[in-house]
């Protein structure tokens, strides 16, 4: 009986000591209660993320919770941009994976390392960015919904899937160019179109060869489902597509024509 009491008492003492030790560990490591893993790593049996599609840029209002104007991490303060429009930067990209998988991002969403997402210190959340690995030319489009990376000299933290598609998992980092793909609020576009009633044409090509111009006109009319016209100045024929009533649509189509190989395309407003 006495031996049993002694054994129970000893076990109780060990339990108390163990509890104190555990509490001490959590105090020293504030993230111990949040993340099960101490260090980040890649998944051991990941799905085939090569088939994961890039994020699709679309208008999303900036969130309230993820866009505090100023915040401080590890003694350093950061100021969040009012808008991502026109943002471009080059720097070092890193990636984050299993340790953070399933936990909440700064935007209040669940981090999925198999989705095309990223973390940035100052871009408003959410933002869509094109990331180019300048070492191999590979590109991805990701949705920024988290804050970081807070390591020195790091520009952006990519999801496991995005890092895979940029071929930077083995090294862990890569030099990248980051460009925001800004999508305007559709309600603002509607107001702008209502105020401005001009007609827009896109000049695509100019040549003194009328036959060549007419052939190209037929091709582009069919391809882009727009009417065409020829403007003649000093025996030079200018091929223009239009009219287009909405300026933002005319601008988008001009950009598309440039990407499709008609690099000299530009907008004409009447």
Structural overview:
- The protein has 5 helices and 12 strands.
- The chain is of the alpha+beta class and 270 residues long.
- The strands form 3 sheets. Strands 3-7-4-6-5-8 form a 6-stranded mixed beta barrel. A 4-stranded antiparallel beta sheet has the order 10-11-9-12, with helices on one face.
- The longest helix is centred in the first third of the chain and has 27 residues.
- The N terminus is likely disordered.
What is the fold's blueprint, element by element?
Layout: H1 2-28, E1 70-73, E2 76-79, E3 88-96, E4 117-120, E5 127-133, E6 139-146, E7 154-159, H2 160-165, E8 174-180, H3 186-195, E9 200-207, H4 210-224, E10 228-233, E11 236-244, H5 247-259, E12 266-269
Parallel strand pairs: 3-7, 4-6
Antiparallel strand pairs: 1-2, 3-8, 4-7, 5-6, 5-8, 9-11, 9-12, 10-11
Any key phrases for this structure?
six-stranded mixed barrel, alpha+beta, four-stranded antiparallel beta sheet, 2 domains, single chain, Alpha-Beta Plaits, 270 residues
CATH hierarchy class name of the largest domain: Mainly Beta
**Total beta strands:** 12
**Number of H/I helices:** 5
What is the strand arrangement across the widest sheet? 3-7-4-6-5-8
Q: Which fold does the CATH topology of the largest domain refer to?
A: Barwin-like endoglucanases
Main pleated sheet: 6 strands, mixed, barrel
Task: Tell me the β content.
Answer: 25-35%
> How many structurally independent domains?
2
- CA radius of gyration is 28 Å
Ranges where pLDDT stays below 50 over 5 or more residues in a row are: 1-33
In CATH, what is the homologous superfamily of the largest domain? RlpA-like domain
CATH architecture of the largest domain: Beta Barrel
What is the H/E string? HEEEEEEEHEHEHEEHE
Percentage of helical residues? Answer: 25-40%
Main location: membrane
Keywords: Cell membrane, Cell wall biogenesis/degradation, Lipoprotein, Lyase, Membrane, Palmitate, Signal
Function: Lytic transglycosylase with a strong preference for naked glycan strands that lack stem peptides.
Enzyme class: lyase
């Amino acid at each position: 009986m006495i031996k049993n009491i002694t054994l129970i008492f000893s076990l109780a003492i060990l339990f108390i000591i163990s509890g104190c030790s555990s509490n001490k560990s959590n105090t020293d490591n504030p993230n111990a209660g949040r993340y099960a893993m101490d260090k980040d790593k890649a998944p051991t049996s990941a799905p085939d993320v090569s088939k994961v599609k890039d994020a699709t840029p679309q208008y999303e209002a900036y969130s309230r919770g993820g866009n505090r104007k100023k915040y401080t991490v590890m003694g350093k303060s950061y100021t969040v941009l009012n808008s991502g429009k026109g943002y471009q930067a080059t720097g070092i990209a890193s990636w984050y994976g299993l340790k953070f998988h399933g936990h909440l991002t700064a935007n209040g969403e669940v981090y999925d390392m198999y989705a095309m997402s990223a973390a940035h210190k100052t871009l408003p959340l959410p933002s869509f960015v094109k990331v180019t690995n300048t070492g191999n030319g590979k590109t991805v489009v990701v949705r920024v919904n988290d804050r970081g990376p807070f390591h020195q000299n790091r520009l952006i933290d990519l999801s496991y899937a995005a890092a895979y598609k940029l071929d930077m998992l083995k090294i862990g980092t890569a030099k990248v160019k980051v460009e925001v793909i800004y999508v305007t609020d559709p309600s603002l576009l509607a107001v702008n179109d209502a105020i401005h009633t001009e007609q827009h044409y896109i000049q695509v090509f100019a040549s003194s060869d009328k036959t060549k111009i007419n052939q190209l006109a037929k091709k582009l009319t069919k391809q882009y489902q727009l009417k065409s016209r020829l403007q003649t100045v000093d025996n030079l024929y200018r091929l223009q597509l239009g009219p287009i009533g909405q300026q933002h649509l005319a601008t988008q189509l001009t950009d598309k024509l440039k990407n499709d190989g008609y690099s000299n395309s530009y907008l004409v407003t009447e």
